[in-house]
């Protein structure tokens, strides 16, 4: 049959031959390494088909993905029947698997140990936490077991201790010599450095703590301001004043849930400004129809230079 010439067929013979051979090779390679799946019709690499000795190319006609999809579908459609069948089979053919596992452990001892070590290294913290929790929950039980173990292994422990002592006494003398201790000057330098560090740290630390606490007082004052503003929406100025000055039994401050950061206690009554008040307390004052909210810092001076206000 006549056909149109391909572009490379116009050029010189050796090159043409070379190109044709390459193309041929490529096609044969495709036949060698690729196969079309019966189900999905896709061209796939050979390793994507399961092995099958009866086929000429040694592979199944259906690719692995199609196969697994099919079997999963079958499983989900006939799940109950399959489970019943499996249970029945297990009942009819009881098998002791312990010997199998033992054998497996024996054969793969090194590999398993390696895996276990890696796992332990990765989950060390979680394991310690879990163990500590178990110990806390079952303290008496654990201590009883420990006592029993010591009682049962008394001789072994004594032997171990004796050997350990001997080893340390007769062992590495050089090591012990170098670990004798510090000289007096070294100790004094260390103590001086620790003192300076402690002083620096303490000053920084207390400063930071007060700053953080004052921030909480400011936030508390903000909460009270918001609450007062909310109450003013449907209560008169006098009614709102009753809510925090002690006239009403359930005060606005008690219901606000704010906590004095310096004492850690909930503030239930209105605070007092200045040196007669408490550090960390929030206080509300009313002048005219404007509510002012402010708080005391560590030195019992106002946390806000201009107080927060609320007005109907
Ligand atoms: Zn397929």
Describe this structure in words.
The chain is mainly alpha-helical and 312 residues long. Helix content is 59%, strand content 10%. The protein has helices spanning 13-33, 64-77, 79-92, 98-107, 109-122, 124-137, 139-152, 154-170, 173-178, 184-231, 237-244, 252-256, and strands spanning 34-36, 43-45, 49-51, 59-63, 282-287, 290-295, 308-311. It is extended. The protein binds zinc ion. Residues 37, 39-40, 42, 62-63, 65-66 line the site of zinc ion.
Poorly predicted regions: none
Helix-strand category: mainly alpha
What is the makeup of the main sheet?
3 strands, antiparallel
Rg over CA atoms: 42 Å
Mean pLDDT: 85
Spatial order of the strands forming the largest sheet:
5-6-7
Short synopsis of the structure:
The protein is mainly alpha-helical and 312 residues long. The protein is built from twelve helices and seven strands.
